[in-house]
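Late entry, evening session. Most of the bench is empty. Finally got around to the prediction I had been postponing all week. Sequence below, unchanged from the version circulated by S.P.
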Amino acid sequence: MTNYKEIKAEILAIGDELLYGQIIDTNSHWISQELDKIGVRVVRRTTVGDNRDSILAAFADAEKRADIILMTGGLGPTNDDLTKPLLAEYFKCSIELVPEALEAVRIFFEKRGRELTELNRLQAHLPTKCTYVPNEVGTAPGMWFEENGKVWMSMPGVPHEMKKLMTDFVLPKIKSLYALPVIYHKVIKTVGIGESWLANIIKDWEKNLPNHIKLAYLPSLGQVKLRLTAFGDDYDELQAEVETAIDQVRPLIDKYIYGYNHESLEESIGRLLKQANKKVALAESCSGGYISHLITSIPGSSKYFQGSLVPYHNQFKNEILDVNADTLKAYGAVSEETIIQMAENIKTMFGADYGLASSGIAGPDGGWKEKPVGTVWIACAYEGKTVSKKLQLTQDRMLNIQLTAIAALNLLRLCILGKTE
C-alpha cells in the first residue's frame, strides 16, 4: 500500500492586511482542503506581511520543508505588492514583458470599457523563469516555477481568481507531475466525554491501528471529533479498512458517538426523532431559546419540533408553565425540583413525547455561594419518567449558553436511545 511518495506542500499568504486582521485568510483553508482531496499533505501554512526580508525568508524556509509552495497575494501593480519582484530576486532572474499576458490584460479592460493604464501594463511583466498562467477573471497572471526539484505557484489573493487558477491549472498540473496517494478520511463525532477520558478508553485500539491509518483528536466546544485518515493506493480498500477500525472501537464508546463526518448534534437529534416518529417541546430559561434555535435550524424540523417557551422570569414559570409557586419559593428557579416540573409541564402542554428544559445562572453576575455563576439544571421528561442533571459551567455568559445547549441536546439524545443509565 506504499507505492507512492508523500508529497508535501506549504501555503504562503502574503499581505499586511492579513496580519492586521483586516481580511480573514479563507484562501489557505480552501487550498488545504483541495490539496487534501488529491493526496497532497499540507505541512505548513504561513502568513507573512509586505516586507522584503520576511518574504524572502519565508520562501527559503518553505523550500526546505515542502515539494510544492503555493502563494497568494502581493501581485498588484503598486509598490507595496512585492511578491513578483521578490520571486525574481529569489530565482535570480529578470522581469520582462510577456506579450501574451499584455494582450490578456488589454482585453480584460476593453471588455469592461476601461482604459489600460501604464500601471496596469506592469501586470504583464513577469519573471523570466516562470511559466505564464492566464488569469481569466482578473488582471494579475499566475506564475508557475519549477526550480531545484520544487514547484512554486503564485496566485492573486482575490478568492475567486485564486480558485479559478487552482481548479483549472494548479490541481491538474500537480496530479500530472506526481504519483499521489489516495487519502480517505472519516470523522467520528462524540459528545459528553472529555478528550483525555476518551483517549484513555480507546488507547489500546489506537495503538493497534495499521501504520497507514492515522488518528487525530479534534476537541471543540463540548465535543471531541476523532478523525481517521488512511493513506494508500485504493480508495475502496482504504474505506473498508477504516470502517473495520470503526466497528472495532464503536462498542467502547457507542454511548458518546452521535454521528459521523459533517453531521451536527442537532441534525443527529432530528434524525433520531424522525426515525422514532417522536416529537419534542422545550422550556428554556437560561439558554433563552438558543436550543430551540439549533433544533429549528435543521430543514424539516417541523416534523418533530412542537414548539418552546422561554419563561425567563419566575412569574411566567408559574403563570404560563404552571411551575408550582411553592416550589419556586422553596428551591428557586435553578433547582432540580423546578427543572423537573418545567420538563414535565412543557411536555404535557405541547403534546410532545419529550419535554426538554433548562434553567441556570448564565452570568456574569447573579450567582452566590450556594449557586455560583455557571450553575445550570437540565431535564428531559419522557415515557413517565424525568431525567435531570446538574451542570457546573464557566464564568462566561455566552459560553454557558452554548454548553447548556450541547448538554441538553445530548441528554435528549440519550433519552431517545434509552442510554441514560
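Two things to note before I forget:
Residues 4 and 179 are 6 Å apart (CA to CA).
The chain has three domains: 8-177, 182-260, 268-417.
Will write this up properly tomorrow.
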